TrEMBL record:
Name by which UniProt lists this protein: Mannosyl-glycoprotein endo-beta-N-acetylglucosamidase-like domain-containing protein
Biased composition (Polar residues): 58-67
Keywords: Hydrolase, Signal
Regions that span the bilayer: none
Hydrolase as UniProt keyword: yes
Protein's UniProt keywords contain DNA-binding: no
Family per record: Belongs to the glycosyl hydrolase 73 family.
Natural source organism: Tetragenococcus solitarius
Superkingdom of this protein's organism: Bacteria
């Protein structure tokens, strides 16, 4: 059966995406692959990855390389775009959403590659016949040659994620369990899954190191959690101290950015957990003074700073309203108050901060 297909040819001058896509896709096995296309695919899979420049820094010495992800805003934005779809598909298909997102970041260069952008939306470099790209490739010795490869095209990112999940669950026509080792039922954690995919989904022998680094830098395991469980927990956030004056609002103040809100109350007033959760930090910081960070089941993290005393330890589970610390003026502070932050990420980066008053439902 021969289908009529529409080919789009684009000249790609960057090598961002053309790297570590799946070695074989189910469709390629189903269909007779022309010798010409086969040759191109061989060329394709032989290429060493070159798409990590913007995503990962590589430090190399004589014997080994290590990869370091520097959190950047582009990546956070990209995670926000695909995160919830990945979470849902991960739950439905029993796959690690964290791995899926990290692969998308790596394969698409934070969604910057041409293939991953509209109108293609191909995040994973999955091959098909909808779009043909001529790419300029480097054979690793500085020699450059053109190569033609065909890729699938999608309506949106969700479809791309779904197709990727389908590929992982259905494997190859002659081996439907080809990717089984990456399923949640088989891999006890994301590291096991990324290790399994190395050499199988991608030829890059450092594939898992790169994915693991991205997952930990951006705390992508948040996306492996089930949102259904969260939906059942419908208690709202509460103010950490009662009857406080808000002496400073969240956001820009002239040239400064205030990461949270300041709640002025008497020294020694008990500070309550705004919602139940797990203490992930209880420490001293030069500007926060004694502070506590709590991660909640909905994925948000709250932070309470300038405490005179911290009363809970890292790893401890706390209930909403439980006293976790006492108000003080430690660190960079001019008087007793609680500096209260809410963050979408437990890494506490500025880009992921939210206005606490929105979370407290004071503001729309
Ligand atoms: Zn403050």
């Amino acid at each position: 059966m021969k289908q009529k297909r529409k080919y789009l040819v684009a000249l790609m001058l960057c090598m961002q995406f053309l790297t570590s896509g799946p070695l074989v896709t189910a469709d390629e096995v189903k269909e007779e692959v022309s010798p010409r296309l086969k040759k191109q695919q061989e060329l394709l899979v032989k290429e060493p990855p070159k798409n990590n420049r913007d995503v990962l820094e590589v430090s190399t010495n004589e014997n080994s390389s290590s990869y370091q992800a520097r959190p950047i805003k582009d990546t956070w934005d990209f995670i926000e775009q695909i995160g919830e779809d990945a979470r849902q598909i991960g739950q439905e298909e029993n796959l690690y959403a964290s791995v899926m997102i990290a692969q998308a970041i790596l394969e698409s260069g934070n969604g910057q590659s041409q293939l991953s952008q509209p109108p293609y939306f191909n995040l994973f470099g999955i091959k098909g016949e909808e779009v043909s790209f001529t790419t300029i490739e480097d054979n690793g010795k500085g020699q450059i040659y053109p190569s033609l490869a065909s890729f699938r095209q999608y309506e949106n990112y969700e479809e791309s994620l779904q197709d990727y999940a389908h590929l992982l669950k259905t494997g190859l026509i002659n081996d439907k369990n080809f990717y089984k080792g990456a399923w949640k039922t088989e891999a006890e954690n994301y590291q096991t899954a990324t290790k399994f995919l190395t050499g199988r989904y991608a030829t890059d022998i450092h594939y898992n190191e790169k994915l693991d680094e991205i997952i930990s830098t951006y705390h992508l395991i948040n996306y492996d959690e089930n949102t259904e469980e969260r939906a059942n927990e419908n208690d709202d956030y509460i103010f950490p101290v009662p009857n406080a004056y808000i002496t400073s609002q969240f956001g820009k103040h002239d040239s400064d950015f205030h990461r949270g809100i300041d709640l002025a109350v008497a020294e020694g007033t008990p500070i309550k957990a705004a919602k139940s959760g797990k203490v992930i930090q209880s420490d001293y910081h030069p500007s926060w003074g004694n502070y506590i960070a709590i991660k909640h089941a909905d994925g948000l993290t709250t932070l309470y700073a300038h405490c005179s005393r911290n009363l809970v330890k890292v790893g401890q589970r706390v209930q909403q309203g439980q006293t976790i610390a006492l108000v003080g003026t430690t660190g960079n502070s001019t008087g007793p108050h609680v500096h209260f932050e809410v963050n979408r990420s437990e890494s506490l980066v500025q880009e992921q901060l939210m206005d606490p008053l929105e979370v407290l439902k004071i503001k729309e």
